[in-house]
Amino acid sequence: MRPLPRVVFVLGKGGVGRSTVAAALASELARRGERTCIFGWTVTDPIAPWFGLPPADLMPRAIAPRLHVANYRLDATLELYFVEHLHLPRFYRRVIDGVHVRKLIQAAPGIAEVFFVGHLWWLTTLAAKEADLHFDRIVVDAPATGHGASLLDMASVLASLRGTGLVGVETERVVGMMADPSWTGAVVVTLAEELSAEETAELVPRVTSRLKRPPLGVFVNRSVARALGDAPEASLAAFAERFSLAAREGVETVITELRSRVVFERALREALGPATDRGVTSLDEQLMAPGPHEPIDVVRGLRDAFGAWLEAP
Amino acid sequence: MSARLHVLLGDGGVGKTTLAAAYALALAARGGRVALLGIDPSHRLQSALGLSLADGTARVASPEPSPPDGELHAALLMPEATLRRWATEGIADAGERERLLHNRLFAVLADRLAATTDVIAAVRIAEWLESDPSLTDFVVDTAPGRNGIEFLRRPTALVDLMHGRLLGWLRRAGEPSPVARRILRGLSHIGGIQMLAELGELAGAVQRPFRRVADRLERAQAALHDPATEILLVTAVREDAVASSHALRAALADAGMAPSAVVVNRVLPAAACDEIARMDETSCDGAAAALARYLRAYAAIEARVEAGARVLAPGVVALAATTGLDGDSRLARLAELGAHLCHALDPQAVRPPASAATRETPHV
Questions:
Q1: Which residues from B are below 8 Å from A196, CB to CB?
Q2: pTM here?
Q3: What are φ and ψ of residue A283, in 5° steps?
Q4: Which residue from A minimizes the CA distance to B356?
Q5: For residue A182, is pLDDT > 90?
Q6: DSSP class of B153
Q7: At A97, which CATH number?
Q8: What is the ipTM metric for this complex?
Q9: Which chain A residues contact residue B268 at CB under 8 A?
Q10: Which of A36, B219, B222, B246 is most enclosed, with most CB atoms within 10 A?
């Protein structure tokens, strides 16, 4: 089994809980003494508000001891790159920030992705010297599947362009980062239900082919296997009978859905266990834990599962 | 009359794809000629319908025993195939066509980037509307979260770029303007002369096919901004639902649009919520206790999500959780779900479905 790389992409279908899982993994790493930054790509950063703070922007915001969160924004990244990193403020204002090039940047697909991985490289290398940002670990809260996985494609996209000049330099850096197993890795989050399971079954081989190594692990979020896996059907039916006829159908629908999660999880384990580095890990449904169930409680509830995962032999 | 657009937006996992399929089936069941386009690059629409789809359209059989006049045609967006088709059908000269298909930037755009989907989706909608003027309804299942919004926003940015001056300079070598020279020289430091030349070549090659594409983009934009267009913000009973719906509504507002209604998917019936609130948890143990805690938490989140939804749009529709959407009778169950959605959104136009699985919140 490989050691945990410096940059961990958290990938998965929309709605499976990527941000929650990223926050729980990062919290656990921070608790163990590592300076950790969650780097997200969302409309508005959801994570800092869980910790009672305003949403984070491109510059990392401290949300707990040794734990930071930052949220990607293309225009701020461009400015940082050209002005602070390359020291070309006039070039930035006249060319990049000019009306014509701005139009190109807004319209051209892929530019945001390229600068996202470029910024990741910077965060793990020069950020210490250039911006006094020191991180041992970056947890990437990636966009949903298709868009998230295309981030892993960026190294080969850049390489296929065979650009010279700045693009050439950046290409070499990003390709090096992605190819190095001690630098970059990915975990996949899924739910035990039909559409997520299907998407995960496609995503795992895609990640493996892009990174030329399997994902570090697959996490089944909102797992009810431990709570309901061994419960006899009769006891669940008896539970539904506590309700009046008017309410029972709704309760039975929920029970049917929860039971199907147990079945899907079993299938996921069989299919994906061998396809990853550290296997399939269940993250218990936190709504079954005694409340409260605010996002911060869910993050704390999941943190221990990552402790065990990090220590696995 | 031109087709009415129905766009389903929402976070991942809230059930957009399932509801888009259900809604389209129901619109067809009430006699419409309906198109259903899945934009999400992960192609989950196939599983929702239990079908294998391609770039071409496929007719979806009606689950009703006696099919009415309605017809449903579904398709998935296949960005690579579509982009190549447009590029080539617009270029008559074989040599010119070859040059474009071998342009490295074009290859990257066509093959690698999920982001191109946004633009292609809008054009694909216009293309379909153009090829089938008898369509009455056009249902669009978008990519999750902010990527769903991109497809509303990026076409405008692209039309802007194509009408802008930069691509013109790139196409004409040895341009005279000193401003242009300075900007191009600056850009050449970034990607190298070779890459800039290829960008110029790409811009030149797509010039002709793009005229048609730009025209379609503009028509897609007009259709999206048509006051008749229905934008449904789909959300689920989830802690993060309210925050992400607000973010989506703000992003919509930036694009000059507003949601027509919010759909809260997979709610518990009111009677169940009441009894769950009164339930005595201490009498349960083991799996039953876990279930009781789960139901109580679910009902509490549901109440918050519904209250939050009411400030987002004039109408809120709560759809009851349903099962059987992944089995053999999935089309029939989907059509039933869709009928509830249709009725809740437009009670005057549709007969109420047999069972009352929706809870409507009065329009504010």
A1: 13
A2: 0.86
A3: -115, 115
A4: A246
A5: yes
A6: H
A7: 3.40.50.300
A8: 0.89
A9: 250-251, 254
A10: A36
